[in-house]
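ok so I'm stuck.
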Amino acid sequence: MIWANDIGCLTNLFKPASDSLVKLVLSSNPIGADGLKTLSQSLSNLRNLEDLDISSTYAGERGTTYVLEPLAFLENLKTLKLKDNTIPGETSVMLDISPLDRIVSPGVACGVNWVSCGLAFVIETGLWRSISTLDLGQNPMCAQGMHIFSKGLIACNIVTLTDLSLSNNKINADGATHLAEALSRVGHGMLRLSLAKNMISSEGMIALAKPLHNMSKLEHLLLTENGITETGGMALGNSLIHLFNLTSFSIGRNPIKNEGTTSIIIGLQNSFDSLEALDVSICHFDGPNLSVPISAGLARMKSLKELNMEGDALNLQGLSHITSALTITKFNLVTLNLGGVQMYADGAKLLSGVLIQFRYLKDLGIGYNKLGDHGLKMILPALHECASISYLGLQHNNLGPTSIFLLADFILKSANLVQVLLYGNNIHYGPNGLTPLASCRHKVTWDTDV
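replied:
not stuck anymore, here's the structure
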């Protein structure tokens, strides 16, 4: 643990190595503003520093100001991390950091700060001109902040930007519209775009769909939990058809329903060969009917490694289509989430016939499916064959006391198993309670653990 009073001694230690020091990590130490003031007096001498991490150091507004000033001298700086430093919104007005235009920086991370840190540090400087990776996730940027941010992107013409993360910023539809304008100017070479949990709605998605047409190099697109409905899903689908290199796509937890889901699956067809991760969880579509076009798409995704369909009401008919398609991707699938798909015992029997072929499966989620003791008996033999499984979700499955011995036997024999979710079941109601699981309790997440 390093405190403010220790910084002086620390800086004296690295003075002799000032020309050779390339990485300095002081994260998660209660240095505070005073300690960072002391640090700032030595930072300008570290001419070859490439990586500076002062995350979670209680920097605040004052500490951040101290650190930013000497960064103008660090011409080789590539990564700066200022996460979790409680920087208030007013900082963007108070900081004068224009000398930072000399910094050549391919990567900056400013997560869990208030919006000002990202905007003041990046927009008011020439740093934009060469940046390629920018993480401003978990800042309450909102629409107004997104407007300023987008203006900065356009004004500095950041055509080098390849990786942009703005997740969990509450930018809403207005903010998404501003961002869309910026992406139409500088998004052509972008590889990764993360916009999860921003309440952009269908209005914002329709605006963003326009620049997506021309972002043909995009590999990663994250749009989880944004309140996007059918119309937004359809607009997105029309843009996805222009993307040929997607490896990861998430539209989970958006009520895009039938037409939106269908449009997106059709739109993904030019990325079927490259797609490795797909999240269409809790999209509120008609499982039995939509499972036909979805399974047809899955059957062509030969590189698929991760599939999340949690909360999609497939029931037995839809599950039959999906599992049939998954047999084609059996050699690649590593993560499969079918939690809450109305599987029941019959679905467990159906899935067991497929699971036995997934030799590399590590994460399997089948919680909230009311499997019951009979369903567990159906699926456990297949799970024994999946020797690589490390995570198993069996929570809220109506499992009773008769299942506890079967579970104990399976857990003890599974060499790679690290965690099993069993909360929300009734396995402890037998005469022995949880005692049969005692030897493997460290791997089990139970009701008392959540």
